[in-house]
Amino acid sequence: MDAIILQILNGLDKGSAYALIALGLTLIFGTLGVVNFAHGALFMIGAFVAVTLQRIFNLSFEQIDPTKKDFLGNPLKVEVPYVEAWFGADVGDWLIDWSVPLAIIFAIPVMLLVGFVMERGLIKHFYKRPHADQILVTFGLAIVLQELIKYFFGANPIQTGAPDAFSGSMDFGVLLGFDPNVIIYPYWRLVYFLFAAIVIGAVFSFLQFTTFGMVVRAGMADRETVGLLGINIDKRFTLMFGLAAAVAGMAGVMYTPILAPNYHMGMDFLVLSFVVVVVGGMGSLPGAVAAGFLLGVLQSFASMNEIKSLIPGIDQVIIYLVAIIILLTRPRGLMGRAGVMEE
What we know:
Blueprint: H1 2-32, H2 39-57, E1 60-69, E2 75-81, H3 82-87, H4 89-97, H5 99-121, H6 131-153, E3 169-171, H7 172-175, E4 184-186, H8 187-209, H9 211-221, H10 223-228, H11 233-255, H12 265-280, H13 285-302, H14 305-310, H15 314-329
Antiparallel strand pairs: 1-2, 3-4
Helix pairs in contact: 1-8, 1-11, 1-12, 1-13, 2-5, 2-6, 2-11, 2-12, 5-11, 8-9, 8-11, 9-11, 12-13, 12-15, 13-15
C-alpha cells in the first residue's frame, strides 16, 4: 500500500505539469483553433525566467571583510550580493532563497508579452490555414526559441533550488497512519501539486464565473454569433492566448526545483502534453486536466522496478499505449466534442 501511495504522489506531480501545459494548449486550440506546437517552449521560457531572476539576485561585488583573514593575517575579499548591500543581509538572503516563487511575479507580465507578440506577430496569420501548416510553423518557432535559450544559457542543465523551507522531505506516511519513514516525499513536489490545483481552479473559475470568461466560452462555441452581437471576440481571444502563455510560464517557473532547466525541456514536455490533449479530447478543458493527471499516475506506476522487470521499457511507452487504446475506443478522446478536428 505504501508503494502504491508513493507512486500516486509521483504521478500527481508529473500529472500537474502535464495538466498545466495541456490546459494552455487546449485554451489556445479551443479559442483560436490553432494547434500550437510552440507551447512547450513557453513552459521552457518560464523556467528560464526563474533562472534569470536567481542570477540577478546573486549578482555580487567584492568587498574587504576585516573579520576574515588569510594565513598571513591580511583581510580577505568576499563576494557580497547587491541585494544584501541594498536591502540588508536578512532581506537579501530571503530574496535569494525565495527567488523561484518570486519569479512568478516577473513571469506573468513576461509571458503575457511573449504570448501577445507570438499571437499578433505570427499565429494570427495562420488562423484559417490547415492544421498541418499551423503545426509546421509553430514547431519551427519552438526550435528557434529552443536554440536561443541554448545560445544564451548553454546546453547544460542549470540547477535551481527550492527555498530552504521546502528543500527537504516530509514523512507523508505518518499523516496517513503508516509507520515513520515509510513514505518520505519532497516538500516541493507537494507544493507544486497544490500550486497546479490553485492555477487550474483559478482558470476554470475565471472562465465560468466572470463576464469575460462567459463571452470567451460563448465564442468558443459559436464565434460568428458572438461577433454579430458587436463583441470584439478576436481581442478577447488574443488575451486568452496571453493567459495560456502565462499558465505555461508559471508552470515552468515552479517546476525548476524538480527538473533542472535545460534548453530542450520544452520539447520533452510538449510531446507528452499534446498526447494528453488528444487523449482528453481536443478542445475539452476538463478532458485535458483529467487526462494529464491520469497519464501522469499511469506513467509513475509504469516506472516501478517490479513493472519494468516484467515489461522492459514500459515506462517510456505507457502514455502512447494508453492513447492508442483510448482513441481506438473513443476517437474523440475522453471528453472530446463532436466536430472538433473532424472536418
